[in-house]
Structures are given as C-alpha cells and as structure tokens.
Amino acid sequence: MYKSRVELLKALADETRLRILDLLRSGECCQCDILPHVYKSQSTVSQHIQILKDCNILEHKKIGQKVEYKVKDKRIFLVLKLVDEMILEHLRRVSETTKGIESMS
After folding, report:
1. Cα separation of 57 and 17, whole Å?
2. 37 Rama class: left (phi>0) / alpha (psi -120 to 50) / beta
3. CATH, range 1-73
4. What order do you get walking across the sheet with 29-30 strand by strand?
5. Which of 4, 39, 49, 99: CA 20 to 30 A from 73?
6. What is the CA radius of gyration of the chain?
7. Which parts of 2-74 fold into alpha helices (H)?
8. Beta-carbon contacts of residue 58 (< 8 Å; ≥ 6 apart)
9. Angle, alpha carbons 100-101-105 (nearest 5°)
10. What are the extents of the domains in the chain?
11. pLDDT in tens, 22-73
C-alpha cells in the first residue's frame, strides 16, 4: 500500500501534471487543448499524460484522429483540495506568527 501511495503522490508532485488535472477538471480534453496551457512541448506533455495514465489517474478514448483524456476518478480533486487547504492554513499560521513577532519589536 505504501508503494502505491508513493507512486500516486509522485504523479501529483509536478506542476505540469497539476495544470493538466486542472484543465481536465471541467471535462475531457485532447492534447491539443492542453498544450497552450502548460507551456511545454508536445513530447513533454505526452510524457506527463502517460505518467498520469500509469498511475490510473487518467483514462483516454480515441475519437477519429484525436485522443480525448479525462480524469478516471473525480476524488483526485478532493485530494488536491485538501492539499490546498493545508497549504493555505500553513500560510495563515506563518503570517500570524510573523505579525506577532513584528508587534513585539
């Protein structure tokens, strides 16, 4: 179970892959729709998509010449939301601590 967690978290630990997931939050996209938003080459985006597929985060279907990608399990967005909440809470605490230290000076 730990190894599976590590692999999933590694897949999420990349800005480009997080951008791809954000784009797919609203539904299916082809790679041509993803490219302008991630500022990476087609081959790099393909590699990132493959990592997300290998971790069972994305699935795809072929429609003519295009391949459409979508998030396989929407609960991944809950995971990302919880991470965002943890980060915001940490930043809030740091800000409060900094203000407290400054007021003592």
Report:
1. 11
2. alpha
3. 1.10.10.10
4. 29-30, 66-71, 58-63
5. 39
6. 18
7. 2-12, 15-24, 31-38, 42-54
8. 24, 49, 52, 69, 70, 71, 72
9. 115
10. 1-73, 74-105
11. 999 999 999 999 999 999 999 999 999 999 999 999 999 998 999 999 999 9
What is the spatial distance between Cα 5 and Cα 3, in angstroms, rounded to a whole number? Answer: 5
Locate 8 and state its tokens.
């999933």
| Both structure tokens of 14 | 């990349």
pTM for the model: 0.86
- What residue type is assigned to position 35 of the chain? L
